[in-house]
């Protein structure tokens, strides 16, 4: 296990003075579809951003193929690892096909600006994400969902063996959410390592081969959904009582939140100190 | 698909020329419209230059000018063409190119159409350097050029350091540049105010920006600057597209963001410094050339080469206007470009306001 392609060692992650995570060790199993889940502000996106070397860790290091990721030339990393960011800057005046084509930057040279592989990769990426019919539209005129798929196409055009996705289903309607997740599953079946941050636990359990469950910058559990996803864990992580059942469609764990009455009772039981103080 | 050859491909709303060798080992992809516009601008710049070579106090037939350029002219014509007019014409073309290239680099790094070197204080800084040499150190000629280059470099370092706060935000850089610019402007006025009348006059002429009475030294200065820095700018020009998408996306796509930006910024500073040292702080060309090239090429942003060629065409035409279209004897070209700049800027702001509702 110690030679996973992508791993983080003793990471301390921080924005300015706010420390998000301390001494974090994470291994991304090769060829897995890993999904990182956890409550808001638990550090899951921060971890993903540091794995993609967009956020420099305060201390510790991310290793890619046995070498510190910071020691590679930027282009070399971009050929092995790509990421769909959460809210990228939308450049003005650029059409969809041109933006997707920019995903080929790491494969291009001064005298190798548009190889047949570039052309094929861009066409494939646009077909897979169903944005081919938007090719001539300006990116800043698209809806949030269309734009999300265009950014995904750009990341796919990069054709990296490792692909990180930061909440890829945001902005998407229900059917497009599943299309994107299906696409990720397909890419995973083709042998790529996928790491995604998802909010929906049921999506996570359905698609992940491996879950990383985080809270307050700490990894509480890592493993196959059927092994790690329990009602106790969900309650510990999200502070919400629930039942874990078997998904009738896929036999994966399915989280059913407890009803309002039981949640209220649990909240009152969880914080007797504050309750009694306010009652006094 | 693997065939070698040249073909036209419509993609993403623009036609691109794709040139490939067999098996796609080497390939070029050029925005066709940018190529045509570039060629057109080159023709304009060269034509206006020829006109400028043939007109003046002693009008020369175009045929004589061409013959002299090819080294077959008579001594009289050769003297007029090579000694009197050619340096000026070359400086105009080269300074225009340097300003255009520098302008597009800065506007795109700052992601702001006002982020050009004449707005963020670089040319004012060069002027301060030149004035210090002219008025305080009693220097002239090449020393003034050295002063301008040093002034420009010192100002850019100062703006960078002042704008730095955990990295440099483009907008902060522009605002800081405008502030520093105002400060140096007032210092320049003070230097002129305390000088003798004849000194003040020559300083003021330098400040307007002019290609009059420049010689082969200045040609070599700006020519050398371009020869070194334009290839660097062209090579890193591809990074400009990627940097425009924000640092995060650029990093993810494999752009060496910090290094690329530093190289581009230094190149832009160097081009502005060389141009200003040779011809004074000529207004408006660096501001407008990239914008005009953008509109003509109908691309999101002007490439380095189209912007440079637009600068050449624009400055050549302005110098022709300064010499012939306006009353007065040999008007400095800076007067014309400043007037054009005022009109252009007003139009730009008016248009933006309408555009944004």
Automatic annotation (TrEMBL), chain A:
Q: Name one GO molecular function term.
A: ATP hydrolysis activity
Query: Can you supply one Gene Ontology CC term for this chain's record?
Result: plasma membrane
Q: Where is the composition biased (Low complexity)?
A: 267-280
Q: InterPro entries from the entry?
A: AAA+_ATPase (IPR003593), ABC_transporter-like_ATP-bd (IPR003439), ABC_transporter-like_CS (IPR017871), P-loop_NTPase (IPR027417), Siderophore_ABC-ATPase (IPR051535)
This protein's membrane topology, according to the annotation, is: Peripheral membrane protein
- The source's domain of life comes to Bacteria
Q: What residue spans carry the region label Disordered?
A: 261-280
Task: Domain (ABC transporter): give its ranges.
Answer: 6-241
User: GO BP, one example?
Assistant: iron ion transport
Q: Where in the cell is it found?
A: Cell membrane
Q: Which UniProt keywords apply?
A: ATP-binding, Cell membrane, Ion transport, Iron, Iron transport, Membrane, Nucleotide-binding, Transport
Coarse class of the primary localization is membrane
This protein is called what? Iron complex transport system ATP-binding protein
Native species: Micromonospora haikouensis
TrEMBL record, chain B:
| Recorded GO MF terms | transmembrane transporter activity
Supply the Pfam families for this chain. Answer: FecCD
Query: What keywords would UniProt list here?
Result: Cell membrane, Membrane, Transmembrane, Transmembrane helix, Transport
List the transmembrane segments. Answer: 30-51, 89-107, 119-137, 143-164, 171-193, 213-235, 262-289, 331-350
**A GO CC term assigned to this protein in UniProt:** plasma membrane
Q: Name one GO biological process term.
A: siderophore-iron import into cell
Q: Does the keyword Kinase apply?
A: no
Q: Which family does it belong to?
A: Belongs to the binding-protein-dependent transport system permease family. FecCD subfamily.
**Name by which UniProt lists this protein:** Iron complex transport system permease protein
